[in-house]
Amino acid sequence: MHGPALARPGPHPAAGRAPRNALPAALLGVVVAGMALSAWHAHDQMTWLLETVWVLVGLPLVVLGRRRFPLTSLLYCLLAAHALVLAVGGHYTYAQVPLGDWARDTFGLDRNPYDRFGHLVQGFVPAVLVRELLSRTSPLRGSRWLAPLTVCACLAFSALFEMFEWAAAVIGGHGADAFLATQGDVWDTQWDMFCALVGATVSVLLLSRAHDRQLDALAARPSGD
Predict the structure, then answer these.
(1) How many CB atoms are closer than 10 A to CB 43?
(2) Spatial CB neighbours of 54, under 8 Å, sequence gap ≥ 6
(3) Which residues contact 151 (CB under 8 A, 6 or more apart)?
(4) Packing angle between helix 98-107 and helix 114-137, nearest 10 degrees?
(5) Each residue's pLDDT tens digit in the chain (225 positions)?
(6) C or N terminus of the chain, fewer CB within 10 Å?
(7) Where are the alpha helices (DSSP H) in the chain?
(8) How far apart are CA 101 and CA 175, in angstroms?
């Protein structure tokens, strides 16, 4: 007579479920810490607010939309890096970032270049954001129009930002000088938009293939993961 059959253990509740991505939570911690350090003894509180307002608005949107509209890991990393660039600029003001002063003195530049770097990033990172939104919410995925429209959107945002700076200068007068960071360059607005254009173009050229692979992986992931 055979003994009672041993019950086979059923599948673990988490079997077949992809491991939860811990990267967004880790990046969130880094950005929150960076923003806290940035605000602590900032050079000018109003300048800090104007420079970091995009993080203050965008961070809650990304966190609240994490479940319903998760982003690719590439985009999460780029957004976190951009937030830190803004945090550094907000803490010191762009014209007085120590790393920019070092670059100016080392390479014999006529100005602190951190502002130029910030506008390159302003094109580089939003290009991936715009590309992701267009790829996932419009028929443009795989279209030859996706790249030029992405770059055009980034250039349009850069122009909008320059108008935002203009409005701040009109309202704040000399108090907005640190926010504008023109450093005496009458062509600063044009340089800012050009840097954003270069950043967006380079981003599309360098990251599109890697971004497409992550978009495919994200689309294949079970909903709710």
Answers:
(1) 13
(2) 86
(3) 127, 197, 200, 201, 204
(4) 120
(5) 455 444 455 544 444 444 567 999 999 999 999 999 999 999 988 889 988 999 999 999 999 999 999 999 999 999 999 999 999 999 999 889 999 999 999 999 989 999 999 999 999 999 999 999 999 999 999 999 999 999 999 999 999 988 887 887 777 665 555 666 667 677 888 999 999 999 999 999 999 999 999 999 999 887 655
(6) N
(7) 23-39, 45-64, 73-92, 98-107, 114-137, 146-172, 177-180, 188-220
(8) 22
Six-digit token string for 54: 């995009």
Quote the tokens at residue 110: 């006529």
Counting Cα atoms < 13 Å in the Cβ hemisphere of 56 gives 11
CA distance 56 to 41: 18
3-state secondary structure 27-73: HHHHHHHHHHHHHCCCCCHHHHHHHHHHHHHHHHHHHHCCCCCCCCH
Given a contact cutoff of 8 angstroms between Cβ atoms, the answer to whether 95 and 183 are in contact is: yes
Size of the chain, expressed as the number of residues it contains: 225
The two tokens of residue 159 are 């122009």
Token pair of 168 as six digits: 């701040």
